[in-house]
Amino acid sequence: MIAANRQDRRSARLLVLEADGTMRDLPRTALATLFGPGDLIVANDAATLPASLRGTHVASNDAVEIRLAGWLSFPDPTHFVAIAFGAGDHHTRTEERLPPPPLSPGDRLRFGPLEAVVERLLDHPRLLDLRVQGNRSTVLAGLAQHGRPIQYAHAPDPLALWDIWTRIAAVPAAFEAPSAGFALDWRMLHAWRRREVPFATLTHATGVSSTGDPALDARLPFDEPYRIPERTAAQVAQTKLRDRGRIIAIGTSVVRALEAAANADGSVRAGKGIATGRIEPGTPLRVVDAVLTGIHQPGESHFELLRAFVDDALLANASAACIAYRYRAHEFGDSMLLDRQPILERWSGFL
């Protein structure tokens, strides 16, 4: 797959894949016309933390990078699941990064203005229960001052925090960007409002997409907290139970949150919860009918989730089409819309 950078968003494309095998190659701006008043679009409003911290292991003075990867006490920004690396930075492929110095419970790590303590190892020498010293305000200030966005080698230029915030970013909860939301802009949201297409949000603490270690990657996604507002839960119930419309999730994180909160009738419970485990082939989907996502490769946890929407033959055809059409992958890349039912033809050119 071709990697995209943050400057490529305006020229992004959209592959629409329907359950009957229909595929359409469209400009991503066509999203503005694909949905109608009976549908509900749900997006993740999580803002992305600067979750990569470079510093030193105090006991040895060796270099270490910590990537915050999950919450152990959401939304308390002092207690995290974290992944440890040795010296180096994002220019080296994650799979080739040096291991951290040997870590033990009680070890202190220093990151500029922040200091953290290894509470315990989580069944892997690089997976940590990490507590950052300080209160909410001092830790968030330290992250803002010293932290950087988690970044991978496919995007060589340093990313700023605003590069990884979607247009609707609100609550600082995610460790990597809920990147399907990069497809949304104010013009598209305005077009949906003009067409009377309902739009709702939830907050899901999106975790990391890669650890660089096959054993750890097999555990992804980690448990991820979410919060569904009362208004969003009411909109889902109205769409599913009264209007018999479709729920369109902007991103796999929205799928995880809605399905974790699902009731048997397709409505969802409002409030806080934890999305656990994988959504994969055979996982029943009680809420979400369609998902907008990036371009993912087989074996990734995001790709496994897509297999709950359409069968493997259709996904294989879609992957082949993405290669043939030179679709761009990763967080700043092109998009795919998977629908469990055929979509009525609504596209008549972008406004």
Describe this structure in words.
The chain has 351 residues and is α/β, with parallel strands linked by helices. The chain has two domains: 2-48 and 158-339, QueA-like (3-Layer(aba) Sandwich); 52-146, Beta Barrel (Thrombin, subunit H), CATH 2.40.10. It contains seven helices and 19 strands. The chain has helices spanning 136-146, 186-194, 214-217, 230-242, 252-260, 301-306, 312-324, and strands at 2-3, 13-18, 23-27, 40-44, 46-48, 52-57, 62-71, 79-85, 108-111, 114-121, 127-132, 171-174, 199-204, 224-228, 247-250, 271-275, 290-293, 328-329, 335-339. The chain has a nine-stranded mixed beta sheet with strand order 3-2-19-17-15-4-13-14-16. The longest helix is centred in the C-terminal third of the chain and has 13 residues, at 230-242. The protein is globular. It starts with a strand and ends in a 12-residue tail after the last strand. Residues 344-351 have low confidence and may be disordered.
List the helices and strands and how they pair.
Layout: E1 2-3, E2 13-18, E3 23-27, E4 40-44, E5 46-48, E6 52-57, E7 62-71, E8 79-85, E9 108-111, E10 114-121, E11 127-132, H1 136-146, E12 171-174, H2 186-194, E13 199-204, H3 214-217, E14 224-228, H4 230-242, E15 247-250, H5 252-260, E16 271-275, E17 290-293, H6 301-306, H7 312-324, E18 328-329, E19 335-339
What's the short story on this structure?
With about 350 residues, the protein is of the alpha/beta class. Helix content is about 20%, strand content about 30%.
Strand content: 25-35%
Low-confidence runs (pLDDT<50, min 5 residues)? Answer: 344-351
**Biggest sheet architecture:** 9 strands, mixed
How far is it from the N-terminal to the C-terminal residue, by CA? 31 Å
